[in-house]
Amino acid sequence: MASKSNRWLSMVALGGLLAGGFVASARAADAPKVTYADHVLPILRAKCLSCHNTDKKSGGLDLSNFTGLKAGGGSGEIFDPGNSGASILWKVINHEEEPKMPPNSEKLPAEMLAVIKNWIDGGALETTGSKALASKKPKMDLKLTAAPTVRPEGPPPMPGRMSLAPVVRTKTTTAITSLAVNPWSPLVAVPGQKQVLLYNTATLELLGVLPYPEGIPQVLKFSRNGSLLMAAGGHAAAQGKVVIFNVRTGERVTEVGDELDTVLAADISPDQSLIALGGSAKMIRVYSIADGSKLWESKKHTDWVTSLAFAPDSVLLATGDRNGGVFVWEAETGREFHMLKAHTAMITGFSWRLDSNILASSSEDTTVRLWEMENGGNVKGWGAHGVGASSVDFARDGRIVSAGRDRVVKIWDQNGTAVRAFEAMADITLACAICNETNRVIGADWTGAIRVWNAVDGAKIGDLTPNPPTLEERLAAANVAVQATTAETKAATDGYTAAQAAAVKATTDLNTANTKMAELTKVVTDTTAAAVKSKEVIAAAQAAHDAAAKIAATLDPVVPALTDSVTKGTEAATKNAEDKEIAAAVTALKALLDNRAATLAANKKVVADKVVELTKGKEQLVAQEKLITDSNVAIEAVKKTVPDLTVADKTMTEKAVAAKAVADAANAKLAASQQQVARWTAEIDFATKLRVLTEKQALAAPLVAASEEALAAVNKMKADLAAAQQVVVTSQTNVNTANTAVAAAKQVLTTAAAEHAAIITTIAGLEAALPALKEAQAKGAEAAAKTPTDKELAAAAELLKTALDKQTASLTAMKTLLVEKATAVEKAKIVVTEMEKKAADAVVVLTASNAKVTELAAAMKPIEDKFASAKQAADQALQPVTALQQEIQKLKEVKL
Predict the structure, then answer these.
(1) Quick one: which of 124, 200, 263, 557 is 20 to 30 A from 584 by CA?
(2) Integer Cα distance of 365 and 343 in angstroms
(3) pLDDT tens for residues 322-348?
(4) Contacts of 141 (CB under 8 A, 6+ apart)
């Protein structure tokens, strides 16, 4: 039983079961001793056996013995060991279904219901020495209602978060005998040592590890809807078993088979109702998944059964052996449907076309053959691999993939025409498969190498391993990568910083030159414009100067002459004061002199001012022309540096871009390495929590078992007390009934005695009256005889005779009745004695029952105290289990 316990622990570590599920599992593993004989039968005796006993089997059900309870009633079995929720017995006594039991009554007390529920869930033990019965139901309803060849609704069947810690890590790998690809998701299953590995065919990432402690899985198959994974194998010459896993959770759903050698061939029917297996025993065995029962078997094969496969419609089953024998069977009945003759060496693989009409087979005789199912004819066959074909797989679109001892995996069409051959592997290829979701082909060889190719162009995508590193090895490698990439990233970052600085300097230099050239150009432009204006100002000043100089030159000789004229005229006027004309002429001449003198002075001032202006303007123009010349010289000097600066800027910028790309790549590589460290740290933490959970569950299990034992004891005591109280009620009823019977018997005796005494009195009266009556009759007869003619006397004599005869008869009857009444009195006395004894016995039983109730009631408290203490200990032990399970559930929801 140790292996069973280990399997349970593996399941817990894999699935992180909830606390309630753990308790149930602990019950199954540690089997609290709630038994039929000690706990259930007293309840049934008190509540159910009046209708369901050996003599009165209501509904065909006898609950008075374990055999009858196990056999069930007219509707079949009434309990499913380990699964009270699916048991008819529990449903009717818990008033979940009709007919509710007991009929027309309230539900049984809670403590009684708990006993029966715990008994069923604990495996329905008969006695403390019994072995728990196995449930006939799988852990989930596997039977499909939808067509298995149609894409199922909902998200693709992919694993949730599972442990990535390998069960076994070996120094070398070994031959891979099977590969399985999920028909509706990018998922491939790979066999390993005591484990099955799940990889994503799109990313080649490991998604989960499923423990297979039974040994080495020789055969892997996904169900047709992709929700289940079958693993079959075991230990050579020791054990063989088929296990079904839930793809999404990794939980073991069910297992079948108990072979004495490893299973070499197995499959699950597409409707998920059957499992077929075969191996070295040359036997085909087909089991029902619903209850694990064996439906049929056949030893038609003359050698090891090496391959088998159900048709997609679940109607047929193909099997092949080491001699090349191929049979097709009706899957449900085991009736032989076809015997297919053509192969001459070991059958290595089967694969059905999706429509179930064509079966492909591969053999070590080098061939791949196609068979039609209407008549069993070989419609096509070709030499696929020169030294033997080892595997064959139909793609959803009808392509065929095969592998062989020639180390090559190939794709064919259904006419046997080669479509593509992939690069040869290192050794004999033993298995191949095609992923319909990614159009990738996977092949595996004798050395344990697994390769993935693109089916379109044959390019190698990558490799998978059946022997992945431990999580600690992955973390160590990730830390080494971080250390290496940290130095690389620092160098790249420093290089980028330097290159960026050089690029910034080059850009700054170029921008400075361009700015300088722009500034100089603006100076030239602005100064040229200013020089133009200066020339215009000089020209205007020169013109004004020249005009004023001309006027001044004209007036310069006139003003002195006019001055002399005025002086002379004034003298004349003075001398000829009376000459008005001379005086008027002198006045006019003086006015003209003033005007001309003023005009001359003004123009001379203009000339003087313009000379200054011209001098300044010419000096400014000279300076502007020099600035223009100097600026143009400077512009040419800057222009000569711009090309080199432009080249330098472009070069430095490109170097900076390249350095940034290198730095970004290094940083991304470092981030990826750090992410890997974080990921594998998280995975180790996850795996550690699962391991700790298992340890805590193991510690809690005996405490839970002790609590269950204590609860069972409490429930048994309550059931015993209830039964004892029922006995008291029954005993009291029996006492009352006996007392009533005693009173009735005494009443019968009293009546019989009174009647007996009355008869004695009657007889005494008759006997006292009879002699006188006899004498009177005799006298009357004598008188009548003496007077025969006296009719009246004769009549009177006759009346006396009649009265005598009647009295005589009455006396005789009374004496007879007296004997009967005497007998009745004696019988009544006996009955009274018997009833008094029964009443006394009933009182004794009642007294004992009351004593038993008192005894049980007194014993109840220590048992309840023991249960309370055990429950408290179990609850305390389960608290960290529940907390850890909740934490693990949250971790499962985290996407790494």
Answers:
(1) 557
(2) 7
(3) 999 999 999 999 999 999 999 999 999
(4) none
